[in-house]
Amino acid sequence: MAQATLELSVVVPVYGCAGCVEELHRRVMAATEGIEGGVELIFVDDRSPDGSWPKLRAIAEADPRVRAVRMSRNFGQHAAITAGLMEARGRWIAVMDCDLQDPPEQIPLLYGRAREGHDIVFGRRRRRGASPFRRIAARTYFRLMNAFTNSNLQGDYGTFSVISHKVAQAYLALGERDRHYLFILNWLGFAHTEVEYEHGERGHGESSYSFGRLVRHALDGVFFQTTVLLRWVVYLGFAISTLGILAAAYFAIANLTGASYPGWTSLAVFTLTIGGFTIVSTGITGLYIGKVFEQVKERPLFVVDERVGAPVEHTEREQEQERELAG
């Protein structure tokens, strides 16, 4: 991560927002112009297919406070956030989406709360600008994740937040490939609070998170956060074994007393139950093994194709940390 030389960095992963990046740039700079100590805006183009990069390049070339980073391919939102954090030079770092649903005018409010002694300030949406289905899906996802991980995050939270340079360094020190920004911050701890804000309307396009992608993202979050599913498989295995022993005792007694019934229905039911459990447990174990395989390959979390804007000076230690994270 770059050495802290400015007061605030604003990190924005970009995907599918070509129609509003100029407006986003204008509003961010207008909202943060009163912050003393310098402000920079870092756009990370996650290889957006809608022509965002030429606009980001033009903005970075025209405004020395802006830097633009382009990924070699689409690596996902959380990898793009990680790339932005590595570039950031601010004592404080704001992270926000590119679609203007996170109002840039709220950045000073989150920054002000952080200055009161909080290392992390979460933005909590007072009103979501999404469909009822997405609101229900988000709440369901967070409830399941909270049950798995013993945390207390709600579906009203997004990536909109302000974190300290210290938190960003701790975030980057983690080597997990399947990372979820909010849950990593929650795991890190540190002094944190939240600020409620009005969730705005999307400035351009549609969300890139389809139903299938949301499901994959949820599964990745579960497997990144906890091994509780493996424990549940063991518990369920013991339960089925106990039921099998009880059933065997029942049928043995029934056979000895002459109360047994002809037919193979019970045998078929037990065979299907045990077979289904075996397939599911093997699949869950295989998914965990697959995640281990992806991790031990030690491929880069992301690859940067191009940077536009003022170069970032790295210390030797920071360069080493970047090499470890990026492979």
Provide an overview of this structure.
Mean pLDDT is 77; it is low at 314-318. This protein has 327 residues and is α/β, with parallel strands linked by helices. The protein has helices spanning 21-32, 52-62, 77-87, 107-115, 132-149, 165-173, 181-188, 211-225, 228-257, 265-296, 316-326; strands spanning 6-14, 39-45, 66-71, 90-95, 120-127, 157-164, 192-198, 304-308. The chain has an eight-stranded mixed β-sheet, with helices on both faces. 51% of the residues lie in helices and 17% in strands.
Features:
17% strand, elongated, 327 residues, alpha/beta, 8 strands, eight-stranded mixed sheet, 51% helix
Q: Average the pLDDT over all residues and give the rounded result.
A: 77
Quote the distance from N terminus to C terminus: 15 Å
* Poorly predicted parts: 314-318
Strand order within the widest sheet?
A: 7-5-6-4-1-2-3-8
Q: What portion of the residues fall into strands of 2 or more residues? A: 15-25%
Q: Give me the secondary-structure category.
A: alpha/beta
How many β strands by DSSP? Answer: 8
Overall geometry: elongated
Biggest beta-sheet profile: 8 strands, mixed
What is the gyration radius calculated from CA atoms?
25 Å
Number of helices: 11
- What level of helicity do the residues show? 40-55%
What string, H for helix and E for strand, traces the elements in order?
EHEHEHEHEHEHHEHHHEH
